[in-house]
Every structure is written in structure tokens, then in C-alpha cells.
Amino acid sequence: MTTDDVPAAITRAHHEEWARVVATLTKRFGDLDLAEESAAEAFATAVERWASAGVPPNPGAWLTTTATRKAIDRIRREHRRDDKQREARMIHDDQPDVAGPIDDDRLRLIFTCCHPALAMESRVALTLRMVGGLTVPEIARAFLVRETAMGQRITRAKTKIKAARIPYRVPSAEDLPARVGGVLAVLFLVFNEGYLATGPDPVRHDLTAEAIRLTRLIRTLLPDDGEVAGLLALMLLTEARRTARVSAAGDLVPLDEQDRGAWDAALVAEGHGLVRERLATGVAPGRYQLLAAINAVHTSARDMRDTDWSQVVALYDQLVRVDPSPVVALNRAIAVAELDGPEVALSAVDRLEVGLANYHAFHATRADLLRRLGRAREAGAAYDRAIELAGNTAEIAHLTRRRDRLG
Amino acid sequence: MQYLVSVLSDSADLATPDEQSAISVFDDRLRAEGHWVFAGGLAAPDAATVVDNRGAEAMVTDGPYLESKEFLVGFWIIEAPDLDVALALAAEGSRACHRKVEVRPFR
């Protein structure tokens, strides 16, 4: 391999090996901090060494060995400094190893980072740092938080893991579904932050890509979990429409106006494959699988009119039973408008006002239905309210365009 | 590893007979499974006295250190290998005494 390939090899190794190196070291030394710092040092060494000596035949093994050496050096230095302090830093794993088919150090790492005793924002930050390998400045930028604040958030989370002894292990079979649900919630939040970004960039591709990459990793570790497959399919089918979803001018392009030829056919095919695979199991689908199935119906249609709306509404009916939140009911109403007309949909939407009065999509949906019913004045007021509440620049541009077209 | 499981409430009322018997069952289980260290119920915050002897002489003040809507009414100290075990026990404790609990590790 020539030295020209070194930056690419480093990037690839970082994607493929970071979580494994951190996880292996955490298992061996029982210390997340030490694992993170040593892994970062090993990658920094790789940048120097590989440029002169070439990329080693097995980059993963090279990185693990180098990181382990760095960790031992650190322990020796600290050992001399303060024995007790190091003792306090240890997170223990006294449980006997029950090496089931899903036992993997990376999986332990993910479950530790997404532990329910940590605040949601800490789980997200810690997962992106420890499992995703993003740097603190990168995570801070993604969530529009100051770097020092993000650094403190991650440090606090690591301190709690040590002090409260949050275990480094895969949860028991009985706790597993709930804990996997917690991990998926973290990844879905990262994805949505990328897809419906607050702030100047309408879509943060770095975040959607990272969420997909981590969900793929979980899928390789938990291949039989239906909701993992469902979330991955949902992300792929959403990501497939990414470029068609924002116009050159930066406006959000709604589904009915999108250039379907611009959708990523490979991502659509992969997402459809996952949805079919889950259907074939005959196991009752959970929330993510239903959302993925709805997206599969949309992405199977040649155009808006060709969409199988009765199928979409039927899937929403199932989803309402799993997740009776008003947001789901709102999305169901949007599908109902296509099947039974805007009048029926509007009365369903109006019933949701109590729970959704401050949600921009509620007002945007009402505005569109009122517009279709020719009630321009009321539609204008609803667009105004939606624009006031929306946080995404592309969405605001789209709503403004619709409002101004009312005449 | 030891954890303090604090029982929090906005009322200093004693446990009802039903709660008391559920607490006993839970305590017995803690002992049987080796989690028991110590437990106790506290008198109302009104009965508290704050003592500060950092200065020249001990200052004695009537009442609790902090007036708050919710306060400590009792606690368990449990032995558990990690937070998952401690949280599972705390969930049972909370159900038994029918009050909110806080789990905090000892150093």
C-alpha cells in the first residue's frame, strides 16, 4: 500500500475499529476514561507511523496493541502518582461472563453509554464519543452546544458511571428488550437531529450518516431484533430521500413535490429488503417496524397518486395501538386526507389541538388542509402560527412559500 | 459496593399497616439475599436540630438544615454489586413503602 492511501486507511480504521478498541480496553482495564484516552493516542500514533512505515496488514490488531501499550504506560505513570485515585476510577465487572451469542464488548459499551440512569443528552453525547468516535468539538457543533459545556457533559457522565458503578455488560434477557429500546431511542434522536436539524443547516448529513452507521453496528450485533431492523430500515428509507427533500434554494420539498428519480435507489432497495424480512417473520411489529413499513409504502409508489393510502392508514391504525401519542394521530390524519378527503382529516386534526397547540407540524397540517378546502384566510393564520413555531430553516422557507401562494 | 436508598416524601405520615407489612417482606428479602446493611425511618423534619461547631462555640439551630417540599423520611443502606442490581432493589423498595426513593452510591 502506498503512503497516498494512509489518510483513507486511517478514516476507514477509525470507522471500523474505534468502538472495538475502546470496548476491548474498557473490558480489560475496567475504565472508560483510560480506554478513550488510549484509543485516541493510538490513532494519533497511527497517523504518524503509518505515513512513514506504511499501513499495517491488520490495522485493527495494530491499533488494539498500540492502545493497550499506551494504557499500560498511563497506568504505570498514575500508579506512581496515586494508587488510591486509580482504584476509584475502576469500573468493575464482577459478573461471571455469560458469553451468549450476543455477547460482544462493543455491545457492552453501547449499553453502558445508553444506561437509563444517565440523562438522555448524556447518553447521546457519550454514545457518539465512545462508540461513534466523534471528537468532543464535533459533538458540540452537532448539537449547537459550547465545546466546554459538551466536554463537561461527557466528563460528568463518565464520573457517574464510575461512582455509581454502572455495569459494563449486556443486560439480562429479561431486561434486554427495554434496554435495546433505550439504545434505539438514542440513535433515533441522533438521526432526527440530523434530519430535522435546528439551526442554520436544514439537514446535517454527518449526524444522519453516523446514526445509520451505529444502527448498522447494532444490527450486526443483534441480528434477530425486529425493532433494530425496523429502525435501520426507517433511517435508510428516510435518508434515501435526503437530497430530494431540500430544494437548491434551501426550501423543504414536501413528499408530493419531490423528484422521485432523485431518491437513492440502493438505500430504498436495502430498506425495502429489511421491511420484507421482518414481514416474513410473522412477528407482531413494533413502532420502528411500522414506521419503516409506512415509509416502504411511500417509497414504492411512482408518484403521490399511485400511493397505496389505504395501506398507509391501516399501518397507522396499528401504530396508534402501539404508540397512542397525538403526533402519531396527526400523521395518521395526513394519510386520511388522501384516502377520505381533507374535510374528514381536518375534523380529526382539530380534535388534537389540546396536546399539540405548540407543535409547528400541527398548524402546518391544519394550514394545508384548510388551503385544500379553499378556506384561505384560516389557512393563512395557521401557516403564520406554524412559521412562528418551526425551528428548521428549510421548513420555514417551505411554509412561507405556501402561505404567500394563498393570495 | 454500598448504596444509600433515601425514601422521599412530602408528608411525614407513618407507613400504613399495608405498607409496613410490605416493607417487612422487602427487608426480609434483603437480609436473605445478602443485600441488607441497615435501614431506618426518621421522625418529621420539625424534630431536627442543626449543630455547627466550626466556629468558636457550637451553634444550635432548631429545625432542618433545608426547608423543602419533599424531605427524607427514611432510608436503606444496601450492598449491591452494581447500579443495575441497586436500581432493581430500589424499585421494589419504592413499591413496598409506596414512596419515591433516591439511589446514591457511597464513595
UniProtKB/TrEMBL annotation, chain A:
Gene3D superfamilies: 1.10.1740.10, Tetratricopeptide repeat domain, Winged helix-like DNA-binding domain superfamily/Winged helix DNA-binding domain. Pfam families: DUF6596 (PF20239), Sigma70_r2 (PF04542), Sigma70_r4_2 (PF08281). It comes from the Bacteria. Residues 20-80 form the RNA polymerase sigma-70 region domain. Keywords: Sigma factor, Transcription, Transcription regulation. Residues 179-277 form the DUF6596 domain. Signal peptide: none annotated. Residues 110-161 form the RNA polymerase sigma factor 70 region 4 type domain. Belongs to the sigma-70 factor family. ECF subfamily. This is RNA polymerase sigma factor.
UniProtKB/TrEMBL annotation, chain B:
It holds the Pfam family YCII. SUPFAM superfamilies: Dimeric alpha+beta barrel. Residues 20-96 form the YCII-related domain. Belongs to the YciI family. PANTHER family: BLL7171 PROTEIN, BLL7171 PROTEIN-RELATED. This is YCII-related domain-containing protein.
